[in-house]
């Protein structure tokens, strides 16, 4: 494994260490535990009011969770379990691919909260379930729960541990916590606000809604709060308060100065750990007595040992090449998983590398996997980060291809760069993305090009086209329509822009030298297949353009839905013939998501219309019914709403 040290960053760590050892930032004097000597930063373990935890593994809140001999995972509407030894995989629960689902274990049962892939006008489409670990005994505990937030996107980019439009779930002391933090801004400063929902598990197995004051969140002393990431308040740094009480017997929280504390809400003990959170580091992991602080976008790691407050700086990687990382607890210490490019530091190496390293509590490490992803599998990187988990002697992740999704695994054996060629990815199980019993064969054509029409200017264009293998006359008609209406028009548009720039620079070769940096122009067209059944198929053409002097990029989408038997393009009115009924039913769904007024007739425009597993969808690009920050808004009206 290649380690790249940067002295300036390491100095920052040492300053942080010095800060902790002097106990700076302690603004609560008398409330700090008597067992801490702030002058040395040492804790008397034998007298500490906070018990020392043994190493544990708890993946609550993650898409993959290790539990006993099985790996449980949720992806693409499928909750599955996979045996650690033989890889046998069974489907426990299946829902729409567009639904959101979070799960956890409690008293040998699986509890999960599911959010449908559409928004109803009353914003209450969330349900709470329980079932046995083999998928039997499915029980609906509560439905019609108010949603965490309106769904915004039909395409989900890189789901992290927490998302603004869904609840996470955790359980402690017979209380089910549906956890959600919403983003707010006041006087230009971002902050997050609790929007949790709580249910009490009764002895008969039913649940009853309870107030926050009856939960751990309601017992926090004034001035303390759960730790959140100030750069992205909707994504959690620390796990939930129920997680801490279940595993540690106390809570990690922060004060108003972003200092990390641990408190016992039962006995009232409080201890300032003199470490600033939500600052240089964005994520944290736990293993027994040790906290791993790390930056998920690259930048560094350090270990913080609770027993003696020792800070152990670990290796750093350059910030100017792509790094994606995640951390999992191990039987001893942590698994640090990351991928990166060598483009800038090592020009001869252009591939992306994926590495799994076991970091022990003393700071030592062992490389378990060094794997170079083939160029055609570069898109696996995001999946490896977000939907992944080391388990037993393997590393598991999900792979998304155009027509097939798969659960994959890589062997975890002590390795280095010289042994990377011995590592191959195995398929554990696969399933079709589409509901069609006879899916069309989709052909992908991609082209990336960079043009330099003149001094101080570059133009990048990227095109991903989809077409059908022409088995029928309908396939040919669909291809012809996409080529004429989408692909050829965009290619002509880009070519006109390139020629205009060449003319401009021919007239004035120094035109772009007025800018501080080289001027760049980026265009792209990305086509995806949104839905396919035996009768219909829907495509999305997503367009993007950016000029260096723009405040932000421009992006918009056009949708195309076809009859697979005739090749004819379809609109909303081809499915629901009564136009008035469409507007009457669909308009409230759109109004529920719109930030400003819109023309109801715009719902009928064919470029907006598509199908999904959940219902009829209508798409709006930025600025059409909401500000740029709202992004692409896709409204899904369930099929049942019309019947």
Summarize the structure.
With about 650 residues, the chain is mostly beta strands. About 10% of the residues lie in helices and about 40% in strands.
General description of the model:
The structure is a single chain. 12% of the residues lie in helices and 40% in strands. It is mainly β. The strands form eleven sheets. A six-stranded mixed β-sheet has the order 32-33-34-35-36-37, covered by helices on one side. A hairpin with a 2-residue loop joins β20 and β21. The chain is globular.
Task: Please name the defining characteristics of this protein.
643 residues; mainly beta; 40 strands; 40% strand; globular; disordered N terminus
Instruction: Count the beta strands.
Output: 40
Beta fraction of the residues? 35-45%
Q: State the helical fraction.
A: 10-25%
Described by strand count, sense and barrel closure, the largest sheet is: 6 strands, mixed
* Form type: globular
**What would you call the structural class?**
mainly beta
Radius of gyration: 27 Å
N-to-C CA distance: 60 Å
Which residues form runs of ≥5 with pLDDT under 50?
A: 1-46, 153-163, 188-192, 230-235
* Count of alpha/pi helices: 5
| Strand line-up of the largest beta sheet | 32-33-34-35-36-37
Give the overall pLDDT as a whole number.
80
Detail the topology: elements first, then pairings:
Blueprint: H1 7-21, E1 36-37, E2 42-43, E3 64-67, E4 70-75, E5 78-83, E6 89-94, E7 100-106, E8 109-115, E9 126-132, E10 139-145, E11 168-172, E12 175-179, E13 181-186, E14 189-194, E15 197-201, E16 207-210, H2 241-247, E17 251-254, E18 259-263, E19 270-276, E20 283-287, E21 290-294, E22 301-305, E23 311-313, E24 323-329, E25 334-341, E26 352-359, E27 365-372, H3 380-386, E28 388-391, E29 394-400, E30 404-411, E31 425-432, E32 442-454, E33 457-468, H4 473-507, E34 519-532, E35 536-547, E36 554-563, E37 569-570, H5 579-593, E38 609-611, E39 615-620, E40 633-638
Parallel strand pairs: 33-34
Antiparallel strand pairs: 1-2, 3-4, 4-5, 5-6, 7-8, 8-9, 9-10, 11-12, 12-15, 13-14, 15-16, 17-18, 18-19, 20-21, 21-22, 22-23, 24-25, 25-26, 26-27, 28-29, 29-30, 30-31, 32-33, 34-35, 35-36, 36-37, 38-39, 39-40
């Amino acid at each position: 494994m290649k380690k790249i040290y940067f002295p300036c960053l390491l100095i920052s760590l040492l300053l942080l260490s010095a800060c902790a050892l002097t106990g700076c930032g302690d603004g609560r004097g008398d409330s700090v535990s008597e067992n801490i000597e702030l002058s040395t930063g040492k804790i008397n373990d034998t007298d500490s009011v906070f018990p020392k935890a043994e190493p544990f593994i708890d993946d609550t809140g993650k898409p993959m969770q290790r539990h006993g001999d099985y790996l449980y995972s949720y992806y693409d509407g499928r909750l599955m379990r996979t045996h650690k030894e033989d890889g046998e995989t069974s489907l426990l629960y299946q829902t729409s691919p567009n639904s959101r689902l979070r799960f956890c274990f409690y008293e040998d049962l699986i509890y999960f909260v599911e959010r449908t892939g559409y928004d109803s006008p009353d914003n209450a489409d969330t349900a709470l379930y329980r079932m046995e670990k083999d998928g039997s005994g499915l029980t609906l505990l509560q439905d019609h729960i108010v949603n965490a937030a309106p769904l915004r996107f039909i395409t989900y980019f890189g789901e992290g541990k927490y998302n603004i439009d869904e609840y996470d779930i955790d359980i402690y002391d017979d209380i089910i916590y549906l956890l959600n933090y919403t983003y707010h801004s006041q006087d230009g400063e971002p902050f997050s606000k609790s929007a949790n929902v709580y249910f009490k598990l009764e002895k008969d197995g039913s649940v009853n809604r309870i107030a926050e004051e009856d939960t751990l969140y309601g017992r926090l002393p004034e001035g303390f709060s759960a730790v959140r990431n100030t750069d992205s308040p909707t994504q959690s740094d620390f796990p939930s308060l129920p997680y801490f009480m279940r595993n540690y017997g106390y809570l990690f929280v922060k004060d108003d100065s972003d200092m990390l504390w641990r408190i016992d809400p039962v006995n009232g003990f409080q201890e300032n750990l003199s470490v600033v959170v939500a600052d240089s580091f964005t994520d944290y992991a736990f293993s027994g007595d040790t906290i791993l602080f790390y930056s998920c976008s690259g930048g560094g790691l350090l270990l913080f040992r609770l027993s003696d407050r020792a800070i152990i700086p670990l290796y750093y990687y350059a910030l100017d090449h792509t790094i994606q990382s995640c951390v999992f607890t191990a039987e001893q210490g942590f698994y640090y998983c990351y991928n990166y490019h060598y483009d800038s530091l090592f020009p001869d190496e252009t591939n992306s590398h994926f590495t799994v390293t076991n970091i022990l509590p003393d700071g030592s490490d062992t490389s378990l996997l060094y794997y170079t992803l083939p160029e055609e599998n570069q898109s696996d990187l995001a999946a490896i980060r977000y939907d992944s988990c080391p388990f037993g002697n393997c590393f598991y992740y999900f792979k998304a291809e155009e027509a097939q999704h798969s659960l994959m695994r890589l062997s975890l054996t002590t390795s280095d760069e010289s042994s990377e060629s011995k590592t191959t990815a195995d398929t554990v199980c696969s399933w079709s993305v589409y509901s069609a019993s006879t899916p069309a064969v989709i052909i992908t054509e991609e082209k990336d090009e960079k043009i330099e029409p003149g001094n101080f200017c570059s133009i990048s264009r990227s095109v991903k086209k989809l077409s059908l293998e022409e088995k029928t006359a309908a396939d040919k008609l669909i291809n012809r329509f996409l080529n004429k209406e989408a692909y050829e028009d965009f290619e002509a548009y880009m070519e006109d822009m390139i020629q205009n720039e060449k003319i401009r620079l021919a007239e004035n070769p120094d035109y772009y030298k007025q800018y501080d940096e080289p001027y760049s122009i980026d265009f792209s067209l990305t086509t995806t297949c949104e839905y396919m059944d035996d009768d219909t198929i829907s495509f999305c053409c997503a367009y993007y353009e950016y000029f260096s002097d723009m405040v932000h990029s421009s992006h918009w989408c056009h949708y195309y839905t076809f009859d697979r038997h005739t090749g004819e393009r379809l609109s909303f009115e081809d499915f629901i013939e009564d136009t008035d009924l469409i507007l009457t039913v669909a308009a409230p769904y759109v109004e529920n998501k719109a930030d400003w007024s819109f023309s109801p007739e715009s719902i009928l425009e064919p470029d907006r219309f598509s199908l999904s597993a959940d219902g009829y969808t209508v798409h709006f690009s930025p600025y059409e019914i909401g500000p740029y920050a709202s992004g692409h808004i896709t409204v899904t009206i369930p099929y049942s709403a019309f019947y």
